[in-house]
Design brief:
Length: 239
């Protein structure tokens, strides 16, 4: 009986120890009451550790959920920004499109003809520039055939008596000047014009934009203007 009391007292002393399992089992073995003592092994430490693990696990889950929500919010914000930027770009493009009388098909054909001529002499293609096109359209809307006196860009102009004349016909007429141009000597045949062609194939030019007037009031009913950036036709070879 005394031994049993001592054992219970020892269990009480070790019950609150974080490592009480090993010490408690050692006392039980010494008293020869191993089976009885095992049934009285303290569980406080096990409960504490289990609670700590549960709390830590819940904490990690909460952190993961919070990060996930933040990532989802960030993705939605990025998608919204992309939508807004695209909408604004489309709005600007629509504004420019309505500012020129050329159709999308005609614009594609103008680029194609220009870039074929440039490819023939080993030059990179031009891109369409809406600002240049708007400027060209503004100038040609005057209904007067002539060059703009204050333009900082290269400029080609053409006119035709028929309002139905395709702008491609005019551009191809510019390209016929190639036969008069000596690029090595960087000069045009005497009495001929070459500077529409040389502007089309000028080596430093990267962009073009054109405008058309199909209802001019004079004898020439169709007027075409194309602007180029950077401008060409400086001294020296065109390409």
């Amino acid at each position: 009986m005394a031994n049993f009391m001592i054992i219970r007292h020892t269990v009480s002393d070790f019950a609150n120890w974080k490592t009480g399992f090993d010490s408690h089992e050692t006392v039980c073995n010494a008293a020869g009451l191993k089976a009885r003592c095992r049934s009285q092994i303290p569980t406080n430490n096990l409960h504490e550790r289990t609670s700590e693990l549960i709390i830590k696990k819940r904490g990690k889950i909460m952190i993961i959920k919070m990060i996930t929500k933040q990532l989802i919010c960030a993705v939605f914000i990025m998608l919204w920004l992309v939508f807004v930027v695209n909408a604004q770009a489309k709005k600007v493009e629509t504004k420019y499109c309505t500012a020129t009388e050329l159709t999308e098909t005609e614009i594609s054909e103008i680029l194609e003809v220009h870039n074929k001529a440039r490819a023939d002499v080993g030059l990179p293609p031009l891109t369409w520039n809406w600002k240049l096109a708007v400027m060209a359209q503004g100038w040609v809307n005057r209904g007067v055939f002539g060059h703009s006196p204050k333009s900082n860009f290269g400029e080609n102009i053409a006119a035709a008596q028929s309002a139905d004349t395709s702008p491609i016909v005019s551009i191809k007429s510019w390209l016929l000047e190639k036969s008069f141009w000596d690029n090595i000597a960087a000069k045009c045949q005497t009495g001929k014009s070459c500077y529409h062609y040389t502007q089309v194939v000028w080596k430093s030019t990267t962009a073009v934009g054109c405008g058309i007037n199909r209802n001019a009031s004079g004898k020439m009913k169709m007027l075409l203007v194309c602007n180029y950036d950077p401008a060409g036709n400086f001294p020296g070879p065109a390409y």
